[in-house]
Design goal:
The protein is of the alpha/beta class and 306 residues long. It has 2 domains: 19-108 and 235-302, Bordetella uptake gene, domain 1 (D-Maltodextrin-Binding Protein, domain 2, 3-Layer(aba) Sandwich); 109-208, Periplasmic binding protein-like II (D-Maltodextrin-Binding Protein, domain 2). Helix content is 42%, strand content 20%. It has 11 helices and 10 strands. Strands 1, 2, 3, 4, 5, 6, 7, 8, 9 and 10 form a 10-stranded mixed β-sheet that branches.
């Protein structure tokens, strides 16, 4: 007797059939959170299912990453993180779990900013001040140990021959109040997190890591223009899932995320925050991670983490 499959059962095979959880391994307020919420809104509308942004900060992002790694690999639990952060966790042995690469939706340069109380209007002036003071007198904020803001600042400091004191936070957002009050003086962070504060004069932009100036902050030079052409570090944001996800689900997620970042509303919000939309296959994300490992190895050595 042939097996009859009702149409409703066939429809159940379509993904997703229930809300999808998008883990953000940092606190609200940073570049990862900003991108996650834009993607969640677009994907929710496309799927007719809620995409829940779940901030799980702590342990330099390991809490959110490990939560995702332990989830059922069915596509209903994903994580958005900057690729350097995930690479750091792997290269330092703090994270042994494998992930399924899904999509590479965006990239962004980093912005080097200083509190207005610091009498420096350029990278050179800041570093000259740092050299004239006792080592470590300047504090810099980061989104946590092993993040791009931490490793990038350590790599830059090693190039300049200076030493600043690292003050880690549980994400970019929690560190902003201390930066804006002058409790910490410097940070290297996502453009999205600090653009409005630079435009309002609450922070001074000293340099941007991209190959060209930002249209939204055209007065801020690139690091090459500031005298550090070898300092090249940008943030690529990747979407990952637990290991061994079904290929059809990965393919659909990739296509839908690539679609989402090409929507006019997302493109405009990205542009205002200095973020560039990106599209690519899961294989391209995996290849990119392999290539970037060398860059992050150098940064880890500069930070004394390898």
């Amino acid at each position: 007797m042939p097996l009859l499959i009702p149409e409703a059962a066939a429809a159940d095979a379509q993904f997703p059939q229930r809300p999808v959880r998008l883990i953000v391994p940092t606190s609200p307020g940073g570049g990862v959170d900003f991108i996650a919420r834009l993607l969640a809104r677009q994907l929710s509308d496309r799927w007719g299912q809620n995409v829940i942004v779940d901030n799980r900060a702590g342990a330099a992002g390991l809490i959110g990453l490990e939560f995702t790694a332990r989830a059922t690999p069915d596509g209903y639990t994903l994580v958005l993180d900057n690729t350097g952060h995930l690479l750091t966790a792997r290269l330092t042995g703090k994270l042994s779990s494998d992930f399924t690469p899904i999509a590479l939706p965006a990239n962004s340069p980093l912005l080097f900013v200083v509190h207005p109380s610091v009498p420096a209007t350029s990278v050179k002036e800041l570093f000259d001040l740092a050299r004239a003071k006792p080592a470590g007198e300047f504090n810099y904020a980061s989104a946590g140990e092993g993040t791009s803001s931490h490793l990038g600042t350590e790599l830059l400091s090693s190039m300049a021959g200076i030493k600043m004191t690292h003050v880690p936070y549980k994400g970019t957002g929690p560190g902003l109040p201390d930066l804006l009050s002058g409790k910490v003086q410097v940070t290297l962070t996502s453009v999205a997190a600090v653009t409005q504060h630079v435009q309002a004069g609450r922070l001074h932009g000293l340099a941007v890591t991209g190959v060209k100036r930002l249209t939204t902050l055209s007065q801020v030079p690139t690091f090459a223009e500031a005298g550090y052409p070898r300092f090249r570090m940008s943030v690529w944001y990747g979407v990952f899932g637990p290991a061994a996800m079904p290929t059809p689900v990965v393919g659909q997620l990739n296509a839908d995320i690539n679609w989402a970042v090409q929507q006019p509303g997302v493109i405009d919000r990205f542009a205002n925050a200095g973020i560039e939309p990106a599209t690519g296959s899961p294989a391209q994300l995996a290849d990119y991670m392999a290539i970037e490992a060398a860059t992050w190895n150098a940064a880890l050595k500069a930070a004394g983490m390898r």
